[in-house]
Write a structure and sequence with these properties.
This protein is an all-alpha fold. It contains 32 helices and three strands. A hairpin with an 8-residue loop joins strand 2 and strand 3. Helix 8 packs antiparallel against helix 10, helix 15 runs antiparallel to helix 19 and helix 25 packs parallel to helix 29. The longest helix has about 30 residues. The C terminus is likely disordered. Pfam families: MbhD, MbhE, Proton_antipo_M, Proton_antipo_N. It is a multi-pass membrane protein. Keywords: Antiport, Cell membrane, Ion transport, Membrane, Transmembrane, Transmembrane helix, Transport.
Length: about 800
């Protein structure tokens, strides 16, 4: 076993795609036509670096990198920018970077000449970096950051054709569903830390029973599965995935078959050692996975759009993976990993094949194309190679994945037998889709298509051909591949050493189940038209579904927001202020009452005559405010209160606060008086008695609330640690001896900046308001008066009421 700690290459692997994304538009501008090939060197280099880890990982080692992000001394939750590579993350990272290399070159050919090609390449590279960061992340917050980045970048990619309403809807739908799941995942990750005390996944996996034995296990499980199910499109959150096919085909080939939708599967596999092998895990995952498998496989047969057909089979494949991981058995985990890699190979290839057909013929409708074998020979070869693995024909990687699944079939476990039968039906129906896409567009009489078909450029068919070849080559060398790749990955998921038994062997039961799969697939392919017609008739009867439910939810959400806005944002300043002060009173008294912390009245101190004089002046000012005939008099009387407070500060040895209070009070009175006179608001308050009593009562409650809080604070022993820190560090750190100034401009500089910004904004608003009341920009403050043009008629139209000064 060999460990490579603090391996800085991992940081570069995670950041390189983002750096390349910044350069992509410029590369595309100056190297248009070959930009895809140039930019693809980055994921290719990442793949080669990751390939150097294959040996250490196969020997049972790990590769890691950790860099402090947010210091734990400032934040209770330690956040590190940490990455970790074991067998599981290595397989995902190799798939992401390897298939990403083909996708980037494919995008260069598919979007060649598009005016936003550089932007698209930038988006696809950002997504690649997000996925690499996700599968390599060790710290749970690092994982969540990259998790959300995948949602954001996929939103940009799905909505790339933003002029189309369907693309915008699909992008928003994907963002809402996966973003909502992301919030659930965040709560789940925080609970994992709260329960276990581990913020790093690598250390969490060593304490395997810490979550299973905790009373909050079920809640943690549901939160984590909520994030995984939405990202990996499990029923009932599956509807966003087929709609995401509005994205350009490179997006479908990369995000929605090989990478993003498998992020949820990765999360389930990663958390398996600490969450699996319970009744909840072994029930929830197989049931939802099995339903998703059958739903996707059946719905795929209803489509004629080849991208939609592949999208629904992707849905079924994701259900297969979730169902297998939910069994918590060594064979099931190994089968899931085999199926995951096989699916990435053949589904990525088939999506690119469909994109090439669409790009060169102008349509991807299965009923509108045929006879393209001679026109697109290399694309046809790629389709056949991919379909062989998708059908599970010997001796492809898909064949061994299917055989491993069927090893679960045994009379001693009825549950496993039922799930194997579900897998058999799902495999057969998905096989029919693969055969349809590999055969129907290329054989038969050639039909007239919107474009005259011809072979796609090299950048568009070399990737699917290589993926198809890899799907077969991995089957030929299955023993070595299993020992090097799948055994370490299964060990990481199973949390115990797994030795693969992968080899070509003949078992009567497995052969019978495989033959049954091929029979189901062959019959479904032969009766494809009849099945499609039947499913469409059923769909016309049962119109409602999760997709329509999402629209209703969004419509209801918008209506609710409108109602709340009309209720709370009614435009009446008076009610706004009432609500603010009522909430303030609640915030003041609620904690004191709930914690039984209402202070006792202190003994009244012995005051000197001059102190009594100041209190008497403040009381006179209060009476003057209440008895004032006009608002202007009330404002001036209110200044008495401020001046009294300033004098109190002076009497008790705080001259700086006293002078500050004096200046603020003077400016406040002057400015308010100026505004009142310029706006002609110096008339008497027009409130009726009931309103005056209401407002007065609220004011009295708030006043007593502040008094109670201050008394409660003063009753606690003074903690001087913060002031001691200021005294000790004011000169050496901030180079200032006036501690108050240092606090304002150094320790709480952002707060001071915010206060200045608020005051400046309020001043601008007041100035604008005065200008409007004086007649708008033509008669505002400082606006020059324009003389009327000679010969121009004088204005006789009376000025409107709103412009009256």
């Amino acid at each position: 076993m060999s460990d490579l700690p603090n391996h800085y290459a991992l940081l570069l692997i995670a950041l390189a795609p983002f750096i390349t994304a910044l350069l992509a538009p410029w590369v595309n501008r100056f190297a248009n036509g070959v930009s895809g090939w140039i930019l693809a060197t980055v994921p290719a280099a990442i793949f080669l670096v990751l390939a150097t880890y294959i040996g250490p990982i196969a020997d049972g080692g790990t590769v890691s990198f950790t860099m402090s992000w947010v210091e734990s001394q400032y934040f209770h939750f330690p956040i590190n920018l940490s990455f970790f590579v074991d067998g599981l993350s290595l397989i995902f990272a190799l798939l992401i970077s390897g298939i990403g290399t083909f996708i980037v070159t494919y995008s260069g050919g598919y979007l060649n000449g598009h005016r936003h090609q550089g932007r698209f390449l930038s988006f696809i590279l950002m997504f690649m970096g997000s996925m690499l960061g996700l599968v390599l992340a060790d710290n749970i917050i690092t994982l969540f950051v990259f998790w959300e980045l995948t949602s954001i970048t996929s939103f940009l990619l799905i909505g790339f054709n933003h002029n189309k309403e369907a693309s915008r809807r699909a992008a928003i739908q994907a963002l809402v569903v996966t973003g909502g799941g992301g919030l659930l995942l965040l709560f789940g990750l925080l609970m994992i830390f709260a329960v276990s005390g581990h913020s790093e996944l690598s250390t969490l996996m060593m304490d395997q029973n810490v979550l299973r034995d905790h009373p909050a296990y079920l809640l943690v499980l549901l939160l984590v599965l909520g994030g995984a199910f939405t990202k990996s499109a499990q029923v009932p959150f599956h509807f966003w995935l087929p709609n995401a096919m509005e994205a350009p085909t490179p997006v479908s080939a990369y995000l929605h078959s090989a990478t993003m939708v498998k992020a949820g599967v990765y999360l389930i596999a990663r958390m398996s050692p600490v969450l699996n092998d319970t009744i909840y895990w072994n029930t929830i995952l197989p049931i939802f996975g099995g339903i998703t498998l059958l739903t996707g496989a059946i719905m795929a047969l209803r489509q004629t759009d080849m991208k939609q057909m592949l999208a629904y089979t992707t849905l079924g494949s994701l259900g297969m993976l979730v169902m297998l991981l939910g069994l918590s058995e060594k064979v099931a985990i190994l089968a899931a990993l085999l199926f995951l890699v096989a699916h990435a190979f053949y589904k990525g290839a088939l999506f690119m094949v469909v994109g090439a057909i669409d790009h060169e013929s102008g349509t991807r409708d299965l009923t509108e194309v045929s006879g393209l074998r001679a026109k697109l020979p290399f694309t046809f070869i790629a389709a056949v190679l991919a379909a062989i693995s998708m059908a599970g024909f010997p001796i492809s990687l898909g064949y061994f994945a299917k055989e491993e699944i069927y090893l679960l079939f045994g009379p001693e476990n009825v549950w496993s037998m039922a799930l194997v039968l579900v897998a058999l039906i799902g495999n057969g129906l998905m096989m029919a889709v693969g055969l349809a896409i590999a055969i129907k567009p290329f054989f038969g009489k050639m039909l007239e298509t919107p474009k005259s078909p011809h072979e796609a450029p090299l950048s568009m068919y070399w990737g699917p051909i290589i993926l198809g070849v890899l799907g077969l080559a991995a089957g030929f060398y299955i023993t070595d591949v299993g020992q090097i790749f799948f055994a370490p990955a299964a060990t990481a998921v199973y949390a115990k050493l797994v030795e693969t038994h992968l080899k070509l062997h003949f078992d009567a039961l497995l052969i019978a189940l495989s033959v049954a799969t091929w029979v189901v697939g062959g019959l479904a392919f032969y009766k494809l038209e009849s099945i499609r017609s039947f499913l469409r008739r059923v769909a016309t009867v049962w119109r409602w579904g999760p997709d329509q439910g999402f629209d209703q939810f969004m419509f209801g959400l918008i209506r609710l927001a409108d109602r709340v806005t009309r209720l709370l944002h009614h435009g009446r300043l008076e009610l706004y202020l009432i609500l603010v002060f009522v909430c303030l009173a609640g915030a003041l008294f609620t904690p004191l009452i709930m914690q039984d912390a209402l202070p006792k009245l202190p003994a009244f101190p012995n005051l000197h005559f001059y102190e009594w004089s100041i209190i008497a002046i403040a009381a006179i000012g209060l009476i003057a405010v209440i008895a004032a005939k006009t608002r202007l008099v009330a404002i001036v009387s209110l200044g008495i209160q401020g001046f009294s407070v300033a004098v109190i500060f002076l009497l008790f040895g705080a001259p700086d606060l006293g002078f500050t209070q004096l200046m603020v009070e003077t400016l406040s009175v002057v400015i308010l008086a100026l505004v009142m006179t310029r706006l002609h608001l110096d008339q008497r308050d027009a409130r009726v008695l009931e309103e005056a009593v209401r407002d007065g009562a609220i004011a009295i409650v708030c006043g007593f609330g502040f008094v109670a809080v201050l008394l409660a604070v003063l009753s606690v022993e003074l903690d001087t640690s913060l002031s001691d820190l200021f005294v000790a560090t004011s000169v050496p750190i901030a180079h200032g001896r006036n501690i108050v100034n240092v606090i304002l401009v150094d320790y709480r500089a952002l707060d001071t900046l915010g206060e200045i910004t608020v005051v400046m904004t309020a001043g601008i608003a007041i100035l604008a308001l005065i200008g409007i009341r004086l007649g708008g920009p033509k008669r505002g403050i400082g606006a020059p008066k324009k003389a009327p043009k000679s010969g121009a008629p004088k204005r006789t139209t009376p000025r409107s009421k709103g412009a009256r000064a």
